[in-house]
Amino acid sequence: MYRDPEAASPGAPTRDVLLVSAIITVSLSVTVVLCGLCHWCQRKLGKRYKNSLETVGTPDSGRGRSEKKAIKLPAGGKAVNTAPVPGQTPHDESDRRTEPRSSVSDLVNSLTSEMLMLSPGSEDDEAHEGCSRENLGRIQFSVGYNFQESTLTVKVMKAQELPAKDFSGTSDPFVKIYLLPDKKHKLETKVKRKNLNPHWNETFLFEGFPYEKVVQRVLYLQVLDYDRFSRNDPIGEVSIPLNKVDLTQMQTFWKDLKPCSDGSGSRGELLLSLCYNPSANSIIVNIIKARNLKAMDIGGTSDPYVKVWLMYKDKRVEKKKTVTMKRNLNPIFNESFAFDIPTEKLRETTIIITVMDKDKLSRNDVIGKIYLSWKSGPGEVKHWKDMIARPRQPVAQWHQLKA
């Protein structure tokens, strides 16, 4: 009797079943390997990210001339002297340091990065819980102490990824340097026009400081956006206690900028609504009410009113304002203003809302501001996008007033 050699014997698995089993086995093996690699890559990625945020090494390479400014603090602490002096331009090796990577690790790192971004419970989310997620950029600086001359040297090198504060989508940054708690004596860098990645390369000398007093101070750097016509806008700040720094040699740091603290406390909140009508090419701004406004007058109150500026790029197009509410820190306005804005200009448009305190005998005081556009802070951008997503519907939202 002829018997088919490929026929399955009773109880033996067929060829299709064996093939499926083999595929499942290989898939499980690959999954286990990838999981192991992902955990390893996460550790390596986290370590590399941490090292990139704060480096200790050589000073920054100067673009142009490195400048030097000095402030002398004798016993009275009154003499101030600032003078630019040409200096050296050492190379910054930290910016050029790269790691060789294989194609396999590149693939795994890219996959791991995507997993970390999609993971709802990542360490980055936990670390920033309850804080602003707005990226304020970072700054590079170095500090050291000359024991023979009793002089503290601070070098402000550069900043990266600064936020745009001007209506043209850029900023004019400069840096103020303090040795807290002393706020009387400060030094400043030059203003870098229209630059979100400025290079200053300026050196500052705090002369006549005994070492035992230096270690009691806190080095404070504040980055601001220069404004010719109004108050300079704070971008971010960095502070470092000098007793935690080895001052025997120049130490170089990269520090993330943090939101500037407002020592005067909260300025209050403003409730307003936006209504966008694309067919009419208009936006209606309704100033509804405010609460917990900062008291600007001696009597512990304010006389608030609201100014609304329509800006296109960096030009002021139109201004409107509400009535003044006498002696009221929780005023109700309920005033609406319509602005003509063509759809094609919407992306370059900013609405500035300023809460003012009316003063008969002196200049009116600014209580706080709100910038509404597609490139403002997280809360403002959300309101702007909600307005566009819901045309012809008033969209109301509370906003924290800012300096």
From TrEMBL:
PANTHER family, A to Z: SYNAPTOTAGMIN (PTHR10024), SYNAPTOTAGMIN-7 (PTHR10024:SF344)
Gene Ontology terms for molecular function: calcium ion binding; calcium-dependent phospholipid binding; calmodulin binding; clathrin binding; phosphatidylserine binding; SNARE binding
Organism field: Nannospalax galili (Northern Israeli blind subterranean mole rat)
A GO cellular-component term linked to this record: phagocytic vesicle membrane
Biased composition (Basic and acidic residues): 90-100
Domain of life: Eukaryota
Annotated stretches, region: Disordered: 53-106
Family of the protein in this entry: Belongs to the synaptotagmin family.
Membrane topology: Single-pass membrane protein
Transmembrane segments: 20-41
Coiled-coil region list: none
PROSITE patterns per the UniProt record, alphabetical: C2
Description of how the protein assembles with itself and partners: Homodimer. Can also form heterodimers with SYT6, SYT9 and SYT10. Interacts with calmodulin (CALM1, CALM2 or CALM3). Interacts with CD63; required for localization to lysosomes. Interacts with APP.
Pfam families, A to Z: C2
Cofactor names: Ca(2+)
UniProt keyword list: Calcium, Calmodulin-binding, Cell membrane, Cell projection, Cytoplasmic vesicle, Exocytosis, Lipoprotein, Lysosome, Membrane, Metal-binding, Palmitate, Peroxisome, Phosphoprotein, Repeat, Synapse, Transmembrane, Transmembrane helix
Annotated ranges, domain C2: 135-255, 266-399
Chief location: membrane
Descriptive protein name: Synaptotagmin-7
